[in-house]
Amino acid sequence: AESGKFDFYVMSLSWSPGFCATPAGRGDELQCGPQRHFAFVLHGLWPQYERGGWPESCSTEAVGGNLVTSMLTIMPSPRLVTHEWEKHGTCSGLQPKEYFDEATEAFQSIQIPPRYKAPEQTITVSPGQLQQDFARANPTLPDDSLVVLCSGNGRYLQEVRACLTEDLEGRRCNREVLRDACKSDQIVMRPVR
Ligand code: U2P
Description:
The protein is of the alpha+beta class. The chain has helices at about 15-20, 25, 30, 65-70, 80-85, 95-110, 125-135, 175-180; strands at about 10-15, 40-50, 125, 145-150, 155-165, 185-190.
């Protein structure tokens, strides 16, 4: 794949309490340890093709340790930051610093609805309602620019994805991205402990 040749971005927001309840999360002190209280975190900013698929691992350029550390407040795992750079960032056409600045700007451009910022109790909600709540908190996003994903056989909220232009404006997702939408009637958002 050629770096910088893509059509739009998917920004993926991961529901950290869900990840922390999985075996991988239980072993991740930085993201899930007792002093950690993450809610939505940045999973990644992914260059995508309109006709489906995405470029990945476009170069072997490395990302510096200081830059990785600087991302940990919103992307709380060094391994995730490095992985996202190698798999997706290298295809953005940007230098590591520019790419993570872009990812940070994208993350900050989406308003998390207040009730989802740090819920202390389990929330049970339909994927459609969750999507509407995000849409209401982000009135400039067009229809079909937000996708809710679930895991655990559809039981739990996994991620909220937003489709963005290269300039980080909201835009409609393509069919492929919309296809991953959660089909459950209700999903559980584990609380932030
Ligand atoms: O969905 C599983 C993993 O595939 C990558 N993915 C998925 C959809 C998409 O539109 N773009 C994309 O890159 C993600 O891989 P990761 O970055 O986590 O390795 C996603 O988690």
